[in-house]
Amino acid sequence: MSTKDFVEKDYYKVLGVPKDATEAEIKKAYRKLARENHPDANKNDAKAEERFKEISEANDILGDPKKRKEYDEARALFGNGGFRSPGGPGGGSFNFDLGDLFGGTQGAGAGGGFGGGGGIGDVFGGLFNRGAGAGTRTQPRRGQDIESEVTLSFTEAIEGATVPLRMSSQQPCTACSGTGDKNGTPRVCPTCVGTGQVSRGSGGGFSLTDPCVDCKGRGLIAENPCEVCKGSGRAKSSRTMQVRIPAGVSDNQKIRLRGKGAPGERGGQNGDLYVVVHVDTHPVFGRKDDNLTVTVPVSFTEAALGGEIKVPTLGGPAVTLKLPAGTPNGRTMRARGKGAVRKDGTRGDLLVTVEVAVPKELDDKARDALETYREATASEDPRAELFQAAKGA
C-alpha cells in the first residue's frame, strides 16, 4: 500500500464507527459487516467481495492497538495534504517528502529535530516497514493466492470431509535458495536501494511509492541469474496437502483458507488458498438451501386412508412420518433436523414429498375390489370443480 493510499483511507468510516470507538465496538462492527459481505453469503458478487476485503483491511489496522495508534498519528500528520508541524507558528503546515521522512535521512526541521536517531521515521516503521536507516532493507512480500477445485460426493458435502489436494504454486527456488542468483549472492538493487519501491512526486510535496521496475519489487538483482528461476527467485512447485472441507458446503461454493497459499518472501505472509467445491448428485436425495429433499412413493390406500410410513434419511436411521387420511399426490411433509448442517452447527430439515404410486398390473382380487370402489363412488366427479371454474373464467 502506498503512503498516500494509507493516509487517505478512512478506516473508521469503512467500519462505520467513531474515531473514539472502543476495541469491543470495532470488533462488533467488523463482525457484523463481515457476515453481511462474506463471499460465501454473496456468491458471484464482485462488489460484496471487494467490500469484504476493504472491511478486513480496516479491521487489520483498527483492530490492532499499535497499528491503530500509528494510523491515527499518520492521519493527524499527513491527512490534510502536508506535514502538520506541532511546534510551528499557529500549528501551520509545510510540504514534506514522505520518502525522506520514513527513510530517516532528513535534518532538523521547523519545530524540532527529525534526525537519523529515530523519531518520526520509527513511529511509522511498523506500518511501512521502513524505520530509520531502513534504506537498504528489502521489503517483505506476501505470497500469491492459489485457487484449486475439489469434487465431493453428496454425503461428503453434507457431513464434511478431509480431502487430499494437489496444488501448484510459485515457491522459493530450491536451486538458488530463493535468491535468484545461481551463486546465491544477489546484489542490492541500486535504483530502489533494496526497498523494492521507488518514490515519485505527485505535487504538493508528497512522494508516492511504486514497485521498482528494475528489480520487479524484489529489492535484489541477480548478477548471475539462476537457470531454473531465471533470476526471479521463484519456481513452480507442486505439493499435496490435506484440506478440511466444512460440513454443509454447496455446489460451486468457494472456500477461503487463510495462509494456505504460496509462502511469502523475506518474512512476508503466506497467500490464501481458495477451494471451489463441486458436489456430485445423489440417486435419492436432493438439496434446497439447508434442507434435504426426498420423494417417497405411497400406495393409493395409504394416501386415502392414512397411516404411518417410513422415510430414509442421509446416513442415519429411517424416520416414521404420520400420513393423514386423504393426502393428495405431491404433498410435502417435514422431518425436522434431518437436513444439511448449517454454519451455526444446527441442521436443516428433510422435506418429504408424497408421490401416489399407481400399480401397473392388478390381479383379479385387486381388480374386483377397485371395480367395487368405482361403483361406490360413481356419483362423485373429481373434475366438476375444474369445469365450473372454466365456465366462470
Written overview of the protein:
With 393 residues, this protein is α+β, with helices and mostly antiparallel strands. A hairpin with a 5-residue loop joins β6 (197-201) and β7. α3 packs antiparallel against α4 (46-62). It has helices at 3-8, 11-15, 23-37, 46-62, 65-78, 98-103, 120-123, 125-128, 154-159, 300-305, 364-376, 384-392, and strands spanning 83-84, 93-94, 146-152, 161-172, 187-188, 197-201, 207-211, 220-221, 234-245, 253-257, 273-279, 286-288, 291-298, 307-313, 316-323, 332-335, 350-356. It is 27% helix and 25% strand. The protein folds into 3 domains: 3-94, Helix Hairpins (Orthogonal Bundle), CATH 1.10.287.110; 146-279, Ribbon (Chaperone, DNAj Protein, Chain A); 286-392, Sandwich (HSP40/DNAj peptide-binding domain), CATH 2.60.260. The chain is elongated, with a radius of gyration of 34 Å. The chain contains 12 helices and 17 strands.
